[in-house]
Amino acid sequence: MSTNKEHKPDVSPVVVETDLDRLRRDVYRSDMEKFKLLMDMFRKNALLKKAKITHK
After folding, report:
1. Which tens digits make up the pLDDT trace of 24-51?
2. Could you give the percent of the chain with pLDDT greater than 70?
3. In whole angstroms, what is the distance from residue 53 CA to residue 20 CA?
4. For the residues of 6-36, what is the DSSP string, one character each?
5. Quick one: which of 38, 18, 19 has its CA closest to 29?
6. Angle at CA 40, nearest 5°, toward 20 and 37?
């Protein structure tokens, strides 16, 4: 048995995607996917508009 065990988790490097890269990828989405993403953004916007932030 080895007493010197090192555990290295499998951590992938953080990939920062530029706006241009994201746009190039999103151009090839289907119209239905684009529509669903748009509706999701509208729902989130409506939810955030209703939110009230209070500080004590």
Report:
1. 888 999 999 999 999 999 999 999 999 8
2. 75
3. 34
4. ------PPPPPPPHHHHHHHHTTS-HHHHHH
5. 38
6. 40
**The pair of three-digit structure tokens given for residue 38, joined into one six-digit string:** 């748009």
Structure tokens at 8: 């290295």
Kind and range of the H or E run holding 49: helix 31-50
> Six-digit token pair at 25?
């990828």
The position carrying tokens 């953080």 is 14
Q: Which amino acid is at 12?
A: S
Tokens of 3: 């007493």
- The pair phi, psi for residue 19, each rounded to 5°, is -60, -40
